[in-house]
Amino acid sequence: MRLVGLGASAGGLASLEEFFRNTPINTSMAFLVVQHLDPTQKALLPELLQRYTAMPVHEAQQNMAIQANSVYVIPPNRELRVVDNTLKLEQPAEPRGLRLPINVLFSSLASAQSEQAIAVVLSGMGSDGTLGLQAIKATGGLTLVQTPESAQFDAMPRSAIGSDCADIIAPPAELPARILDFVGRVPESDHSHQTQTSITRLDPILRLLRQHTRHDFSLYKPTTLNRRVERRMAIHNISDLTDYSRFLSNNSQEVQLLFRELLIGVTQFFRDPDTWDYLITQGLPELLASHSPDQPLRAWVAGCSTGEEAYSLAIAFSEAMENCHPGHDLNLQIFASDISPEAITIARRGCYPLSIQNTISEARLVRFFIKHDNHYQIRPAIRDKVLFARHDVILDPPFTKLDLIACRNLLIYFDLTLQRRILPLFHYSLRPGGMLLLGSSETVGRLNHLFEPLQPKMRLYRSKHYQSSRHSDFLLKSFPPMSTLPKEHPVPTSQSSSPETLNSLQAAADHVLLQVYAPAAVVLNEHADIVYISGRTGKYLEPAAGKANWNIHAMARDGLREPLYTALRQSVSQTDPIELTGLRVNTGSGTQPVDLSIKAFREPEALKGMTMVVFRDAAEQTPPRRRKSKPEADSDNTNKIEQYQQEIERLREQARLSREELQASNEELQSTNEELQSANEELTTSKEEMQSMNEELQTINTELQTKLDDLALAQSDMQNVLNSIEIAVLFLDQELNVRRYTERASAIVSLRESDIGRPLSDLTSSLRYPELQEDALQTLNTLAVSEKQITTIDDRWFSVRIIPYRRLDNVIDGVVITLVDITETKNLESALRERPGSDPRV
Predict the structure, then answer these.
(1) pLDDT tens for each residue of 285-295
(2) Closest by alpha carbon to 428, among 459, 451, 453, 394?
(3) Cis peptide before 397 (omega within 30 of 0)
(4) Contact present, 300 and 335 (Cβ < 8 Å)
(5) Pick from 47, 100, 234, 249: most CB atoms within 10 A?
(6) What b-and-e string marks burial along 476-491, b requiring 16 or more CB atoms within 10 Å of the CB?
(7) Is the entire prediction scored with pTM above 0.70?
């Protein structure tokens, strides 16, 4: 059974009405409603929602079992959670005004139902529900948000949409149909039967992801891949995998969305507090005690997402250092990596919403964060200790000589083969005795020869003294580990040439010349990265130290870098090749004059946008032994002057390009500054408007509460007046349904509280008055008063009077039936008629 959580605040009743009016009765799902309620007032929400749906609506109670096709509403002053298909109610821990009950429900749904969870955010003020949606999206559930245009208050929908965690955005009336369509396409089923064929079926999709994002998901768990792909297919109403592959190939934005879907980026500060407490009090102090103070501590957070865990580790190191060595500086460098560029950008900013105060203590907030109007920012002392980089733990070489690696809740998405390939890399990267911190659902498996447990329950391990590289081809097999990565085919040699080619003398000669005598050259893409190499380029290019980098500016030898940079910039704007002559290049064993030819391609299509750089060795000018004559010396001086002038021109051109770039950057920064000032003014205005609106709402709320109190008092007065008179009164609406009645009326007509709203024709009475329904209808239509004397089955008499019900605004809204007991009058009249000599006219 799937559970659907609905969160609403201001204006939410209208949205809930539209939602449930369009929800069928037999969905086989249960609906949990959380509305921001006044904790001091009794809630009327269950009674109000019951008007819009035929499903039973219950106010949630402690340990209530959840039934399908039912609606459960949160009671006032409580937080609602789901545990094992049972409702759990708790007293809110936060004071009034700071409570986020929607996040509480959604987070519990994510834990209880995982990918089966469904959450809906409707109208409301604030941002409650956004963090809960992120948790559900991270577990693979479905997230839906009301369109801001259809909401009376759009702050909650806009917050959810702004966090990029909404799968479906639609008006409330359309949301039930979208949910049912999704559930129909992604039913509650076991995906295990697809495990053997899933990778083969998903090959076209994985290939598209690899082409667009450079990342290979072929060794991810098949069940995870299937669930994520099926989710995206259901969101787009696509049922066939081939159709979805075609949709992906024509829609690069969907490729990026699927890529982010597979990157499951959920994190928070100090997740699993017990683990962090142990690290600060025992684990890190032991590491600090065994570490030389002259060397920096090095740590790596793999899969850091938006940075919360990396900053948590930096804070933990700072607190541990303060406890062990008060007043000493902490020489720490944390490398934090993730393959999502969006997550890395957020992490580098170090700005987080005010809601982090729910998971971080007040002392840490004051010490390590700077509070702004709408966010917290990491203090520079902590920010400077963390270096964020885009890095694929599967494909890219690891960071090395580390004291600690934190890789939490990442390995669970890899299959066993990939896990056994990654963990030895972690051991290779750690110093002897280094620490490995894994997620709560991860272990080192059978690799006990590499790691020993420090705290098994906390998944904290220490690296053993073992040579990881003793495995044959250890590093060669690890980078890259994917057998499906595309490989470049080498230029065919003469032995591989076809017989037809070799039979042609001209073609054979051209082939030999190309292989033996062609100059060294490279082909660059638009980012100046080398994509093809021809000939021997070692004298001109060399790999840069550190992480592999194929950018020609990083690989160019001394003497080439600056002229090459200027020439590449010029080649983009002209069609003729650029020739550079006589460049002195440091080849490692000396200097060598080199000539360059740079050509930007605009055709053919395969080379469009690329640039070719051709290297040629220039002849060394050998000075003659004889003494030069004056004309020869003048000629040499002239050549040198020309060479110096060319060099000056190159430097001038380079300086001009640099000035233009700096000027453009300055203009962009000025424009950005103006935009930020404008945005700040708009935010200030919005803040003032919100404060004004809040004051108005408080005033309106007070007025409405006063009116409600007056109405409640007037209703009590009316009820007492009606009960005090000895007349039976029955109020009917325009459909002749019971609206209200007095106690005397219930003695004549069979009435009880549950009969409110029932038609008059369905009621039984002791009156011998079969025309009562017709007379009431005639009075309603003609506005004529009807009055008759009617007997009852127990021989009593009643004067039945039917008059129109006229509201204060002079609108007829039903009829009023009064029944006056005239039995004594009738009996007296009969007695007078039966007395001898009495005048029958009396």
Answers:
(1) 888 888 877 78
(2) 451
(3) no
(4) yes
(5) 100
(6) eebeebbeeeeeeeee
(7) no
